[in-house]
Design a protein that fits this description.
87 residues; 5 helices; mainly alpha; DUF3243; Cytochrome Bc1 Complex, Chain D, domain 2
């Protein structure tokens, strides 16, 4: 199993992985707005390309699917905050 599959299937691993990327992005000077924008784009990619492998991922996908762009940006922003707390 590849690292990417492990990261996507295990929510705790995903939060830690994302948190580490957020910290790295901040260290190179990315703004919170830019990071959130990237998180939104990643969310769109995952929604279109990845079948949720567990209940945590399924719940996030279902919230993402019913939300409009504003809702999705809020979810992305919250995921960045959650990730930072788990870095």
């Amino acid at each position: 199993m590849s690292t990417e599959n492990t990261v996507i299937k295990n929510f705790d691993t995903w939060k830690k992985f994302l948190g580490e990327r957020v910290v790295q992005a901040e260290k190179i000077g990315m703004s919170e707005e830019t990071i959130t924008k990237l998180a939104f784009e990643i969310g769109e990619f995952l929604d279109n390309k990845v079948d949720p492998a567990n209940s945590s991922n399924r719940a996030i996908k279902e919230l993402w699917d019913v939300g409009d762009d504003g809702d999705k940006k809020t979810i992305a922003k919250l995921m960045v905050k959650l990730a930072k707390n788990n870095a």
